[in-house]
Amino acid sequence: MSQSDQYSIEIFSLQKKFGDFEAVKDISFKIKKGEIFGILGPNGAGKTTTLNMILGLLHPTSGKIIIEGYDNSKENSKIKQLIGFMTQETVVDSYLTARDNLRIFARLYHIPENRIEEKVNHALDEANLISFADVAAGTFSGGMQRRLNLVKSMIQEPKILILDEPTTGLDIQSRVGMWEEIKRLRSKGITIILTTQYLEEADQLCDRIAIIDHGKVMAIGTASELKKTVAKGNLLSIKVNQDEREKTAKILKSKLKMEYEEKDDLFVLTNNIDMDMMIKVAEELRRNKIDVQTIGMHLPTMDDVFMKLTGSSIRDSTGDQKAGKNMAKMGLIGRR
Amino acid sequence: MGLLYDSITIFKREMLIFKSNLRTNIIRSMMFPLIIIIFLGNLGSSVNNIPVAVANYANSQVSNQFMNSLESGSTLNIKAVTNEQEGLAMLRAGSISSLIVILPSFPKSTDGQPSVYVYYATSQFSESGVAIPFIENTAAKYSTGQVSSVSIQSDVNAVSTQGTNSSYRDFLIAGVILFSVAFGAVFGGGMSIIVDRQLGNIKSFLITPINKNAIVLGKLFSGTLQSMIYGILALGLGLVLGGSVAMGVAGLIWIIPLILFVGAAFSGIAIMLGSRIKTIEVYTIVAQSITMPAWFLSGAFFPSSSFPPILQPFNIGDPLTYATNGIRSVMLNGYFPVGQIILDFSVVIIFAILGIIISFALFKSTID
Ligand SMILES: Nc1ncnc2c1ncn2[C@@H]1O[C@H](COP(=O)(O)OP(=O)(O)OP(=O)(O)O)[C@@H](O)[C@H]1O
Ligand SMILES: [Mg+2]
Questions:
Q1: Cβ pair B209:A89 closer than 8 A
Q2: For range A163-188, the mean pLDDT
């Protein structure tokens, strides 16, 4: 397999400006054929903007995107047949039946008329919606709508499937169902790109992850590779009384010579931590009469990775998700 | 595959959505016409003592009897005048609303020419609507010939027309049909573009390999067809509620293309606005402030001759005026002169072409 055959999508120093604002600053990555590639980042990181450029909905200000060997600035219509896309919002025509929803997309993808019914029936079967085929999609549950949306995005049998936050807003059960579905598609050889704000989703579902923030790739790799960048071994988290934070910081820094990061109300020690080290730290704190509320050793999580790279927890930055998003849309809040 | 195929796919989708809400769509489109025709269509039915002048050139026993019958009851208030010129002067001065001319041959018609002429001022629409049928009915009792009306628009003598059927109801129905068409296009199919963008449908169309103009064209087709359906429903409703088409079924040959072009033009306007405006609320305000004045200024309720002089240029510049006039010629006069056909259709076709071109131009630029 030659070098370029290995990749489904190659992105070279992509940049997108909206007026003076640089939503995507400098993004480069390569997505391997048949992998689940996750783009993880907080609200406004530039995830959707990047996807829109891959999809040909937005023209990059500069940079290059190669999809299955085609340059997407030149061979857009060829590429569109290769990519299936599921939008962030679930898009089905709620007044139309599941069948009509699929028929319309089959036609929009120029599937020959004599093959449409067969394709539509197959898709209904895949989505487990045969018995609801002729019911208006608006009456479906959220999970059913998303399944319909997914098979609709794949009616043309694409090689690549792009999912923009496929599980945002789903309950745990539907989320796990969606993960299973995505893994099943990978097993059929489809390359999958998804964006997410959920660390555990990136961790458990994605083969490789790119963490982006402020329009830049902060890190890229498998979940375990990324975690190793935080610490080779364990981390130590300590929570102390709010009043004693400064004192604790001093002890950790000058007495114990430990490296740490402050995350939410925790101190996270990133030196290679073992049992002896943990006990030493605990004893030193007790000697100084620090009121330790929690102390514990754990392996790095995606949260730690995110924390290290962006300097904030993803929960802070995504905070009140819906409200933040709507306010941003109305132009009420700008970027940090 | 071609633009047309893709447009038809979008068109089918729009029509499926229309069909899924068929009952609501139809009921909503009928509400306004129903109210207007019922409440205003009967305007003038309580009008009496309508000032009418009679120039009796026959001066025979029958013609005097005819005049007496016109005077009986309280519908008309008859003034005798010595000749046609005097009556016309009064008509133009506004002191009478109609002038009846009884020819010497009354009650026989000569060479198929009517022996009674009625001039009426279109500005006195509600009175004329009562007076003319009354005169016709009364004359029918005496005459073997026909009564014929001549309309006077402003100060210009129009052509003598046969079989005139002039009631305010019919006058109004022409306006109501165009209301249904224009508002149907702007608030029916055309508005869908905003909802589609909000829901992400436009985006999901754009990631398919279709030509993006197919979205505009498909929506233009469906918006036009839907508004035509609304227009025809309004006409049907008008007929059920007592209206009539002087030209008969043949009138549809003219009415349908007129509403087609108006529907296409307003669908284009709707797409143009929908491409630029992000929310339904703002769209509603903007669309209403375009459509409402255009509709009023076309003389939907009142003949344009009754407008104050400052509004006259707006009436002349309003494309809907020509569509309204065209439909009125068909419904009221039963006669659509060639010169007027050319004028009315040219204006309406140019209007449609402009609406369509602008919709394409503006839709394109909203995507990049
Ligand atoms: N059309 C546009 N014009 C101006 N600014 C835009 C436009 N689209 C996006 N932006 C801005 O670019 C930044 C990146 O937006 P983008 O939608 O790519 O973020 P995201 O990572 O997908 O976030 P989310 O998790 O909220 O979906 C945001 O600050 C957004 O406000
Ligand atoms: Mg997004």
A1: no
A2: 88
Q: Which residues contact A330 (CB under 8 A, 6 or more apart)?
A: none
pLDDT at A47 over 80: yes
Residues lining ligand 1, judged by CB closer than 6 Å? Answer: A 18, 21, 23, 41, 43-49, 197, 325, 328, 335
pTM for the whole structure: 0.76
CB neighbourhood size of A162 (10 A): 25
Ligand nearest to the CA of A39: 1
Is the omega angle on the peptide bond into residue B107 within 30 degrees of 0, that is, cis?
yes
Specify the DSSP class assigned to residue B212: T
Q: Spell out the alpha helix ranges (H) of A109-211.
A: 113-126, 142-153, 172-187, 199-205
Structure tokens at B29: 């489109």
Residue B143 pLDDT grade (very low, low, confident, very high; cuts 50, 70, 90): low
Q: Could you say which ligand is closest to the alpha carbon of residue A87?
A: 2
pLDDT single digits (tens) A237-295: 899 888 888 888 888 888 888 888 887 778 888 777 888 888 988 998 889 888 888 89
pLDDT (tens digit per residue) in A67-123? 999 998 888 888 999 999 987 677 789 999 999 999 999 999 999 999 999 999 999
Length of chain A as a residue count:
336
Of the options 3.40.1710.10, 3.40.50.2300, 1.50.10.10, 3.30.230.10, the CATH number for the domain spanning B45-160: 3.40.1710.10
How close is the nearest chain B Cα to the Cα of A76, in Å? 8
- In three-state secondary structure terms, A197 is coil
User: What is the CA angle B49-B54-B56, rounded to 5?
Assistant: 150
Q: Judge contact between B150 and B189, C-beta under 8 A.
A: no
Question: Contact, B289 vs B304, CB < 8 A?
Answer: no
CA distances from A69 to A4, A5, A35 (A): 7, 8, 17
Under the phi-then-psi rule, with left for phi > 0, alpha for psi from -120 to 50, and beta for the rest, what region is B105?
A: alpha
Q: Which two tokens stand for residue A237?
A: 């988290």
- Sheet-wide strand order for B156-161: B76-81, B50-56, B98-102, B116-121, B147-153, B156-161
Can you tell me the distance from the alpha carbon of A59 to that of A44, in angstroms, rounded to the nearest whole number?
18
CA distances from B35 to A184, B29, B43, B94 (A): 59, 11, 13, 31
Mean pLDDT to the nearest integer, B215-229: 95
Mean pLDDT (chain B) is: 82
Q: Do B207 and A57 touch (CB under 8 A)?
A: yes
Break chain B into its structural domains and give their ranges.
3-41+168-367, 45-160
